[in-house]
Amino acid sequence: WQKYSQAIGGWESRVATIESLERRVPYPKEENAEALQSKVEDYEAAVGDLFQGLDQFQKPLNTTLPNTEFQQLVKTKVGAFREFARDEGFVLGQDMEFQLGFDIYSDSLPSPELVPMLDYELQAIDHLLRSLASAGADELLLFERDPIPGEPGGAREEDAGVVHKYPVRMRFRSTNNAFHSYINEIANDEEYFYIVRVLKVKNDTQEGPPKGDGEAVVSSAPRLV
Questions:
Q1: What is the reported pLDDT for 95?
Q2: Contact 199, 220 (CB under 8 A)
Q3: Are 179 and 218 in contact (CB under 8 A)?
Q4: Secondary structure letter of residue 27 according to DSSP
Q5: How far apart are CA 98 and CA 95, in angstroms?
Q6: How many CB atoms lie within 10 A of CB 110?
Q7: In whole angstroms, how far apart are CA 76 and each of 82, 184, 209?
Q8: How far is CA 69 from CA 121, 145, 159, in A?
Q9: Model pLDDT, residue 102
């Protein structure tokens, strides 16, 4: 009886599903098109509201910067940051051909439609690394920038989503105090919206320092978006 009841229940459920499908109209019609258009308009309005809400957390894009000037801007930013790092005593790894992550544009021009986003990312990276130097970090060991949608190796524009992420990875050496100061600063930054996604910390000295001695030195590798 139990098996019979289960079989009948499953059969009746399938029959109800079939009858429900048979009552539907599988072909487009005016009423369905109007309903779909209404949902699309509601979605577009919601996306517009989301972008307006995000505007208060980020600077507006510079849509007037030509791609020829962006290439020169990268060179200027790189030179200025190198000088700033030298003044702060912040060492850039000797094996690093450091270009703030924009090495590809040292000898080529970006697509004009990508310039506003690249310019925004350039300003954000410069601010990010200047904050690191100002916090008292000792040395930048590695820095990588992922291609943004539209760049070679980046995601397709249609797959970028509503909120765009510009991931970077870096590894640096610093004292414990400078490390904590830097992480707290970028987590509460009011100019750019940074999110620390992965954070690994390795002590250069495995044994704890004697009481009253100097502070430990850490090698940190945060991954930011």
A1: 60
A2: yes
A3: yes
A4: S
A5: 9
A6: 21
A7: 10, 29, 42
A8: 15, 21, 28
A9: 92
Rounded-to-integer distance, Cα 102 and Cα 137, Å: 22
Q: What is the DSSP letter of 174?
A: E
What pLDDT does residue 213 have? 52
pLDDT of residue 174: 93
Are the C-beta atoms of 174 and 136 separated by less than 8 Å?
yes
Place of tokens 């992480």: 183
CA distance 183 to 17: 55
What gap in Å lies between CA 46 and CA 54, rounded to an integer?
12
* Cα–Cα distance measured from residue 113 to residue 115, given in angstroms and rounded to the nearest whole number: 6
- For residues 164 and 131, give the distance between their C-alpha atoms in angstroms, rounded to a whole number: 23
Give the other-Cβ count within 10 Å of 125's Cβ: 22
19-22 contacts, C-beta under 8 A, 24 or more apart: none
Strand order in the sheet with 196-203: 91-92, 139-145, 168-175, 217-224, 196-203
Give the chain's residues under pLDDT 50.
225
